[in-house]
Amino acid sequence: MCRLFGLSAAQRVRATFWLLEAPDSLAQQSRREPDGTGLGTFDAEGRPLVEKQAFAAYADRQFAREAKERESRTFIAHVRYASTGRIDVRNTHPFCQNDRLFAHHGVITGLDSLDEELGDYRDLVTGDTDSERFFALVTKHIDQRGGDVAGGVAAAARWVAGNLPLYAINLILTTATELWALRYPDTHGLLVLDRAAGGPHHDRHLDHASPAGTVRTRSGDLAQHPSVIVASERMDEDPGWHEVRPGELIHVDESLTLTRLVVIDHPPAYLLSLDQLGHRAAASQDQELTARQPPQDTAHAAHASSPAAKKA
């Protein structure tokens, strides 16, 4: 499944990322290789820098294996298994809108209805994924609330939860100094670590590695500086990892103050099961699917009775 990783520090720090740890990693041994990787950071002036690549050839995969040392206050990394949209760099996370970076893990259907809700904000979408459309909806609600990012994320998620069939909408959003993350509903896990300088032993650099062999990051600076990390899976043995509750929005401000608030306390109106997704979307959400499952597209049947599906 897609991998999400976000890191926030109280000052600019150096970190090195590998988005596929090694050619013989578990990611390469899985039934489906990743469809793209991306890393988002911000320069000293607060301008976003997005480096991403779709995997169309072996040379593209080398992009994900090469070490990328970057300096930023916030970082966002994503490994994509495509559910909606072609394998194309325009569909690869993270996405950038209004100097904010966004990565998503999940599936949203009824995209014609979502396009209708976006109105003019549909122009922000350059690819054809549900993720970038959902980001545009978040941006719309942020603008309607005078720049309130938390309010915009919560409002967009509530609208999708009430109107569109969905499997999950886990997300991470960053600016040059702040980070937000949402888990909804309880389909996929999302974890947060409020890491003291040096970690639990107070004297160690950061060295985090995904068990799946995808995202890995190291930072010597974080032996001296605290940080907050959000990830789709536990990245090390630090006992401080805590699961984000379903419907909970995480916010890390510029001073590393961590706030947690449940912003959606009810289940989705049209929750899709894994069996109701088409083969491609289901495989993107569950890498343990067996090869016995034939390619099919049954998602339309799962939500044909919903109001949004009738518009889509």
TrEMBL record:
Alphabetized CDD domains for the sequence: YafJ
UniProt xrefs under SUPFAM superfamilies: N-terminal nucleophile aminohydrolases (Ntn hydrolases) (SSF56235)
Keywords: Glutamine amidotransferase
Region entry Disordered, spans: 202-223, 283-312
Polar residues: compositionally biased ranges: 284-296
Domain Glutamine amidotransferase type-2: 2-255
PROSITE patterns documented for this protein: GATASE_TYPE_2
InterPro entries named among the record's database cross-references: EgtC-like, GATase_2_dom, Ntn_hydrolases_N
UniProt-listed Gene3D superfamilies: Glutamine Phosphoribosylpyrophosphate, subunit 1, domain 1
Tagged with keyword Transport: no
Biased composition (Low complexity): 299-312
Name of this chain's protein: Class II glutamine amidotransferase
Species assigned in the record: Kibdelosporangium philippinense
Native organism taxonomy: Bacteria, Bacillati, Actinomycetota, Actinomycetes, Pseudonocardiales
